[in-house]
Amino acid sequence: MILLLQYTLIFASVLLLVALGGCFSEHSGVINIGLEGIMVMGALGGALMMKFLPDSTPAFGMILLVVLAAIALGVVYSLLLAVAAINFKADQTLVGTAMNLLGTAAATVFVKAMNTAESVDNVSSTIQYINAKKAFLVNLGGFEFNWFMLLAALALVGSYVSLYKTRFGLRLMACGEHPQAADSVGINVYRMRYAGVLISGMLGGLGGIVYITAGVSEWKFENGVAGFGFLALAVMIFGQWKPTRIALAALLFGFCRALGNVYSGFDFLKALNLPAATYNMLPYIISLVVLAFTSKKSRAPKAEGVPYDKGQR
Length: 313
Description:
This protein has helices at about 1-30, 35-50, 60-85, 90-120, 145-165, 165-175, 180-185, 190-210, 230-240, 245-260, 265-270, 275-295; strands at about 125-130, 135-140, 145, 220. By secondary structure, the chain is mainly alpha-helical.
């Protein structure tokens, strides 16, 4: 049971961070389908930092530098969407899809080239971080607490406060609902949309490094992030673009995903004799069912996906 709780919280943390990132982007008026690619890039940044930092690095320094590296690469990669969608008014769905494909491919090529440079016989796309990962874990009476769980909780509180209790949040949401009206009262719509997309890059990149360190000490980048970026979008829609509801949806989906790791520890589940892949499919099946029944009632920001034209009224 403790292991189930542990995996539920870490997977929920991934989904929460990435879904909150998508929430900021869509509240600004930009659909971020590219969260999957952003997660891969954030994972790459964090994994490289863990690989090259010496084992003697203090735990706090390790955590701080890895988090900053993941955030930095996620933000830089999200600039592709920001420039294409905001400045060039490109189709946001197509740009996001291209970012997903490019993210995994670019990370795989880079890691393989790096490994080959170190050893001609090593052509894998794997990065190991066995010792570095220990800095993120604290054993609390059999429960393996991960500092990323705390970061996810802080991100939830920060997102709620910034969206609903600050001038920035109200302006951001105004740009996603009626950008022309926002512009008429002096709000810079382009700047606010850039802010929304870059925040999504920051949280998406952080979600990427959390995902690849959840239970494993190495990651093969050609596997991407197993669709967790799209699952986070489902969590965001199921949560109606509201941080508190997104958190509850993330816990539900995280629980379903955790079953795939710990089902063998429950006799009644083990007796069913179902393959592990069945349990790994659960969150994706549930996302399809949930969205099929709730999508008609979903209320997305009105101007999301619509390029802003300053001359339009």
